[in-house]
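User: Just a sanity check before I run the rest of the batch. Below are the structure tokens for the first item. I only need the designed sequence back.
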């Protein structure tokens, strides 16, 4: 699951925001810092899922093929028809081709940041990165604006996330699973499931002892806001650990064979299955990360043999399952990487970084599926209509679908006001 990019940046660098437990941040610490946010009651989507394709997937070999381009550009894959008239995608995405009515394809999304870390920061926040400020990702903003149930984490990453909590602080970082589920097996998450033979009954007895000690020293605690806060969030951590609902939410083995089978037995498909289960259980935001898209070499074999079949199976099953359970209308889904890849194939049968044109998929909530918005030029080099869509526009639209005003201002540590998304506009054609 751990990859090193062509530019030398290791995946552990983007784990630091979400590696609760592994980076010394316990569940208690996570909850201890969490604060209630504001809810947008008019939101159609109440929860969100980000599918992040780490490394930068090729737009020309997935959702923006150019069959008429010269052979130096068009690649090996052929387009196939979908269940949306006039819309074609890669032949290696047949399952997604049969559910295009459930999602919208944005083509011609573009920016100018060709390095992984910068493109990643841009696409997971909607803000071009600054050296002086780290912007919060989608999951952090949603967990602030719409805090979850007391006995469930608000924001979960499977197995990790490139998103950071930024100036919002560690209290809004993700609870990372650190691993992916295995088919038909109970899934354990450090900090959620008890280990070492410890039982809930033992935890309850220890808590009663602590409560007696709390009463003995209660007057001292009342004089210290920090101690009061520690007690409050430790109590919430206990609520999650002791909650049968929380443990069941992470247990994909409880899904019926009929529900689980379409997701396949690979790590990404099982991660998508877990995401659907978490959303159904009441978790507000889930990020599912899939690596291996940095295809400077052997692009076509890598995509057709592993990446695309797994992506096709996992995402189509996720959308169909959310729909069948009545959850797609209340869940905003987005799929993206950090950029597209070069239209011209390199000498290693690969494609290099290309931020000037890429795709983004959006689904759920108020998104109108079965449409393609935007376009790239005949070789997939730049937007065909001039400016195309920016990551800022994508972020504004994603937040809009969640009922969050992207122009709302937060304040960082010095008190400086900062809009959630500084630039960009909602793409109106996505809705309605």
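Assistant: Here's the designed sequence for the first item:
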């Amino acid at each position: 699951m751990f990859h090193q990019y062509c530019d030398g940046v290791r995946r552990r660098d983007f784990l630091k925001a979400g590696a609760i437990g592994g980076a010394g941040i316990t569940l208690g610490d996570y909850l201890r810092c969490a604060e209630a946010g504001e809810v947008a009651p008019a939101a159609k989507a109440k929860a969100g899922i980000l599918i992040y394709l780490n490394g930068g997937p090729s737009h020309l070999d997935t959702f923006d093929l150019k069959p008429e381009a010269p052979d130096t550009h068009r690649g090996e894959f052929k387009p196939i028809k979908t269940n949306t008239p006039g819309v074609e995608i890669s032949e290696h995405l047949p399952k997604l081709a049969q559910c295009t009515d459930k999602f919208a394809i944005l083509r011609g999304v573009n920016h100018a940041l060709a390095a992984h870390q910068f493109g990643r920061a841009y696409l997971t926040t909607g803000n071009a990165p600054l050296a002086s400020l780290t912007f919060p990702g989608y999951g952090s903003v949603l967990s602030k604006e719409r805090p979850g149930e007391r006995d469930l984490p608000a924001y979960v990453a499977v197995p990790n996330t490139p998103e950071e909590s930024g100036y919002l602080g560690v209290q809004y970082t993700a609870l990372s699973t650190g691993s992916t589920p295995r088919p038909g097996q109970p899934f354990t998450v450090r900090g959620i499931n008890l280990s070492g033979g410890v039982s809930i009954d033992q935890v309850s007895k220890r808590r009663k002892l602590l409560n007696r000690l709390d009463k003995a020293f209660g007057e001292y605690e009342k004089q210290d806001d920090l101690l009061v806060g520690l007690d409050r969030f430790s109590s919430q951590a206990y609520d999650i650990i002791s909650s049968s609902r929380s443990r069941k939410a992470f247990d994909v083995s409880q899904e019926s064979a009929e529900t689980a089978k379409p997701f396949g037995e690979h790590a990404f498909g099982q991660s998508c299955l877990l995401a659907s289960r978490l959303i159904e259980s009441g978790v507000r935001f889930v990020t599912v990360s899939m690596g291996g898209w940095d295809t400077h070499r052997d692009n076509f074999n890598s995509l057709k043999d592993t990446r695309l079949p797994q992506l096709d199976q996992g995402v189509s099953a996720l959308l169909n399952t959310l729909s069948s359970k009545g959850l797609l209308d209340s869940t905003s889904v987005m799929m993206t990487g950090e950029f597209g890849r070069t239209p011209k194939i390199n000498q290693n049968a690969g494609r290099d970084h290309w931020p000037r044109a890429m795709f983004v998929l959006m689904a759920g909530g108020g998104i109108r599926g079965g449409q393609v918005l935007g376009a790239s030029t005949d070789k997939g080099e730049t937007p065909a209509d001039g400016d195309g869509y920016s990551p800022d526009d994508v972020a504004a639209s994603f937040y809009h679908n969640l009922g969050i005003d992207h122009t709302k201002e937060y304040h960082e540590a010095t008190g400086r006001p900062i809009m959630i998304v500084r630039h960009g506009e909602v793409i109106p054609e996505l809705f309605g």
